[in-house]
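Before surveying the methods themselves, let us examine one representative protein, written as a sequence plus integers encoding its fold.
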Amino acid sequence: SAPPGDRWEPAAVSPRTSTSVARDLKALSDAQARLVRVIEEVSQELTQRLAGHDARLAELQQSLAETAFSQVNLRGDLQRCQAEEVARHGSLNSEILRLRST
């Protein structure tokens, strides 16, 4: 057990100290309420920003998929053009040889 002088006894608190403690508790409660509001506001803002970033990311992923699809199509078109060019070149060479031999 603590010595009598080390214990807090409600009867020993003066009215002025009691008012000061009540005022401090009220200030602390108000500060805590403000802090909770700020945390909630920041949380909402971050949630909105994340939602915006998620939407933008989805748009970019869609755009990337479309670009990749276009690149595949362009690659196919290029290969077809190259094959046609090789065929034309072969045809021209054959025609040149035929004309030279006549």
Q: What stands out?
A: The chain has a mean pLDDT of 90. Residues 15-101 form the longest helix (87 residues).
